[in-house]
């Protein structure tokens, strides 16, 4: 549980999400004003926002403000996949992830200092992983509470990182306009302005009873507490994940078959270790590939029984990779990912006969113990020696 004296809550928010996906997938759009959606603006790149274009604005008005903007139709399937890829990174950082929309989430990183560094270190690594593995910019706010972390990320946008230390919360919060507060929309802001309340500090200076008389008891009490930095809500994970996955960006340079296999091996090691730590097993192995022409491919194979054994998953993944080799050779590859789904608790796993055979999981468990005690690079596969150190970064379980 997060202690009140520590800033260990992260709010991670993708920047201009739909527009950023379009710019990622089409190099011609990078650095140019992009509007997603025709009749109504669903998203605008920061280059378009600089001209006053806003989400939910009419398309005609948006083009009047920015006549040279490039309008593209929405691709919801691409945004959905990008969201899944980003949330996979979140879950690589910590199991305590609360998604609040397709492009933002809270993460609780309390207790990870020994393994992963300070919250600022973790947030910086998260941003780099999202950039390298998914190709998207993301802003992260860090604070003691969800409310402050969300405001910090809004202030840090775009593509930034901002920590609000516990001893500087009110100094950060009070000069900001009340519109920055989570839950203060146009109508509420107008009511507050009518009372002479322009900043969060003005709101904090008002009596709770006076605010309740204007906004209602519940809203008045809630906003008054937030204005003093009081927000007891924990990061809440609503459900257990249905899959466990990881991915690795290979870059745009030519990649040998040996390098691709090494990346796949490291990803399988990472995923199966997370599964064992979380007490989960699964049956369906999915390989995800992104090619040099920005197209993608997904291939799956279901094994005969639920497992968290590294070698079983690796064998299935290598079979899928072998089938995709002709396409990789023709197009080139820039990203590889692996996921295991059809997940269940390992307590539900039925023991197999005969019982006197060597259990493959005993070797996996022994390796896990070494990694837990001495770090993920203390003992590694020969195929990974001398390769990208990010392939062996320790990842926490779901």
Automatic annotation (TrEMBL):
<keyword id="KW-0963">Cytoplasm</keyword>
<dbReference type="InterPro" id="IPR001126">
    <property type="entry name" value="UmuC"/>
</dbReference>
<keyword id="KW-0239">DNA-directed DNA polymerase</keyword>
<dbReference type="GO" id="GO:0000287">
    <property type="term" value="F:magnesium ion binding"/>
</dbReference>
<keyword id="KW-0808">Transferase</keyword>
<keyword id="KW-0227">DNA damage</keyword>
<comment type="subunit">
    <text>Monomer.</text>
</comment>
<dbReference type="GO" id="GO:0009432">
    <property type="term" value="P:SOS response"/>
</dbReference>
<keyword id="KW-0238">DNA-binding</keyword>
<keyword id="KW-0460">Magnesium</keyword>
<dbReference type="InterPro" id="IPR022880">
    <property type="entry name" value="DNApol_IV"/>
</dbReference>
<keyword id="KW-0234">DNA repair</keyword>
<dbReference type="Pfam" id="PF21999">
    <property type="entry name" value="IMS_HHH_1"/>
</dbReference>
<feature type="binding site">
    <location>
        <position position="13"/>
    </location>
    <ligand>
        <name>Mg(2+)</name>
    </ligand>
</feature>
<dbReference type="InterPro" id="IPR043502">
    <property type="entry name" value="DNA/RNA_pol_sf"/>
</dbReference>
<dbReference type="GO" id="GO:0003684">
    <property type="term" value="F:damaged DNA binding"/>
</dbReference>
<dbReference type="InterPro" id="IPR043128">
    <property type="entry name" value="Rev_trsase/Diguanyl_cyclase"/>
</dbReference>
<keyword id="KW-0235">DNA replication</keyword>
<protein>
    <recommendedName>
        <fullName>DNA polymerase IV</fullName>
        <ecNumber>2.7.7.7</ecNumber>
    </recommendedName>
</protein>
<dbReference type="GO" id="GO:0006261">
    <property type="term" value="P:DNA-templated DNA replication"/>
</dbReference>
<dbReference type="GO" id="GO:0003887">
    <property type="term" value="F:DNA-directed DNA polymerase activity"/>
</dbReference>
<feature type="active site">
    <location>
        <position position="104"/>
    </location>
</feature>
<keyword id="KW-0479">Metal-binding</keyword>
<dbReference type="InterPro" id="IPR053848">
    <property type="entry name" value="IMS_HHH_1"/>
</dbReference>
<comment type="similarity">
    <text>Belongs to the DNA polymerase type-Y family.</text>
</comment>
<dbReference type="InterPro" id="IPR036775">
    <property type="entry name" value="DNA_pol_Y-fam_lit_finger_sf"/>
</dbReference>
<dbReference type="GO" id="GO:0005829">
    <property type="term" value="C:cytosol"/>
</dbReference>
<dbReference type="InterPro" id="IPR050116">
    <property type="entry name" value="DNA_polymerase-Y"/>
</dbReference>
<comment type="function">
    <text>Poorly processive, error-prone DNA polymerase involved in untargeted mutagenesis. Copies undamaged DNA at stalled replication forks, which arise in vivo from mismatched or misaligned primer ends. These misaligned primers can be extended by PolIV. Exhibits no 3'-5' exonuclease (proofreading) activity. May be involved in translesional synthesis, in conjunction with the beta clamp from PolIII.</text>
</comment>
<dbReference type="GO" id="GO:0042276">
    <property type="term" value="P:error-prone translesion synthesis"/>
</dbReference>
<dbReference type="Pfam" id="PF11799">
    <property type="entry name" value="IMS_C"/>
</dbReference>
<dbReference type="InterPro" id="IPR017961">
    <property type="entry name" value="DNA_pol_Y-fam_little_finger"/>
</dbReference>
<feature type="binding site">
    <location>
        <position position="103"/>
    </location>
    <ligand>
        <name>Mg(2+)</name>
    </ligand>
</feature>
<dbReference type="Pfam" id="PF00817">
    <property type="entry name" value="IMS"/>
</dbReference>
<feature type="site" description="Substrate discrimination">
    <location>
        <position position="18"/>
    </location>
</feature>
<dbReference type="GO" id="GO:0006281">
    <property type="term" value="P:DNA repair"/>
</dbReference>
<keyword id="KW-0548">Nucleotidyltransferase</keyword>
<keyword id="KW-0515">Mutator protein</keyword>
<feature type="domain" description="UmuC">
    <location>
        <begin position="9"/>
        <end position="185"/>
    </location>
</feature>
């Amino acid at each position: 549980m997060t202690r009140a004296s520590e800033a260990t809550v992260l709010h991670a928010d993708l920047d201009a999400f739909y527009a950023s996906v379009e710019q990622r997938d089409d190099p011609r759009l990078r650095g140019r004003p992009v509007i997603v959606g025709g009749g109504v603006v669903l998203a605008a790149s920061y280059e378009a926002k600089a001209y006053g274009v806003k989400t939910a604005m009419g398309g005609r008005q948006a083009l009047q403000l920015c006549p040279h903007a490039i309008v593209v139709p929405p691709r919801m399937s691409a945004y959905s996949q990008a969201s899944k890829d980003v949330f996979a990174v979140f879950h690589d950082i910590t199991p305590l992830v609360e998604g609040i929309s397709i492009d933002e989430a809270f993460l609780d990183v309390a207790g990870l200092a020994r393994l992963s560094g300070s919250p600022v270190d973790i947030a910086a690594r998260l941003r780099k992983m999202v950039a390298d593995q998914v190709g998207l910019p993301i802003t992260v706010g860090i604070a003691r509470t969800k409310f402050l972390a969300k405001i910090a990320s809004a202030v840090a946008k775009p593509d930034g990182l901002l920590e609000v230390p516990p001893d500087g919360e009110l100094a950060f919060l009070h000069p900001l306009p009340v519109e920055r507060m989570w839950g203060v929309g146009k109508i509420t802001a107008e009511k507050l302005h009518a009372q002479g309340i322009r900043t969060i500090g003005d709101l904090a200076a008002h009596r709770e009873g006076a605010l309740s008389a204007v906004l209602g008891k519940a809203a008045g009490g809630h906003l008054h507490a937030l204005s003093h930095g009081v927000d007891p809500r924990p990061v809440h994970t609503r459900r257990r994940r249905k899959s466990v996955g990881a991915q690795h960006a290979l870059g745009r340079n030519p990649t040998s078959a040996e390098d691709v296999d090494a990346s796949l091996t490291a990803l399988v090691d990472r995923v199966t270790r997370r599964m064992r730590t979380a007490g989960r097993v699964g049956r369906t192995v999915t390989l995800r590939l992104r090619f040099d022409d920005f197209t993608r491919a997904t291939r799956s194979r279901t094994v005969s029984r639920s497992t968290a054994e590294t070698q079983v998953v690796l064998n299935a993944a290598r079979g899928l990779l072998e089938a995709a080799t002709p396409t990789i050779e023709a197009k080139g590859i820039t990203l590889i990912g692996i996921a295991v789904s059809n997940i269940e608790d390992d307590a539900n796993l039925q023991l197999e006969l005969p019982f006197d055979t060597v259990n493959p999981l005993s070797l996996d468990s022994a390796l896990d113990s070494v990694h837990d005690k001495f770090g993920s690079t203390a003992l590694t596969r020969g195929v990974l020696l001398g390769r990208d150190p990010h392939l062996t970064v320790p990842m926490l379980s779901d």
